């Protein structure tokens, strides 16, 4: 005996079927890293007719980086990282190839072929604790100018290639090794060479240019100490 189905049931089934193939976003794991794209595999299975089906690997997925104008922040991506795989409404092949304002190359919608990866989501077991200040962990390479306002604490070695201009006082708690010349006002020298000054130098209040000596007598004797 066939069960009579109402029109609303048929419509609901059709809507449910359409929604099951409407892909918006899902969690995926990085399986490969190329120069400009990554490969990912969704980690949440689909359920079809009561069966749990593992989704395949998707290749050549563009990652999303923070960018504006000519500046950007790009982070390393490693196999095993998790990402949010965002599936766009339309095929973006022509846009990705460099053409704006074009009709889609294919008329698929919300398809697994049109994904962008936002790397940086984690399960609870490896979730990053939300900090109270900006926290950066890992090596950094910066190209371009850098302006800093406020106090800065450096822990570890600091190597600078190029000139350093300091406006303000400097306090050094430790030794200074110089392989070149140190110039300060009318003074220059150190570095294992001759020290020169165009003004007077005093040591314990005694002038280098105007001091006198006691016990001066003709002959081969030595003078007394400077005064």
Which short descriptors sum up this protein?
23% strand; 3-stranded antiparallel β-sheet; 5-stranded antiparallel β-sheet; 2 helices; mainly beta; OB fold (Dihydrolipoamide Acetyltransferase, E2P)
Commentary on this structure:
The structure is a single chain. The chain is 8% helix and 23% strand. The chain is mostly beta strands and 227 residues long. Among the domains are: 7-66 and 74-123, Gp5 N-terminal domain (OB fold (Dihydrolipoamide Acetyltransferase, E2P), Beta Barrel), CATH 2.40.50; 176-212, no CATH class. The strands form 5 sheets. A 5-stranded antiparallel sheet has the order 5-2-1-8-9, with no helix packed on it. Strand 6 (66-68) and strand 7 (71-73) form a beta hairpin.
Spatial strand arrangement across the major sheet: 5-2-1-8-9
Separation, N- and C-terminal Cα atoms: 127 Å
Low-confidence segments:
none
CATH class of the domain at 7-66 and 74-123: Mainly Beta
CATH superfamily of the domain at 7-66 and 74-123: Gp5 N-terminal domain
Overall pLDDT: 86
Helix content: under 10%
- Name the structural class: mainly beta
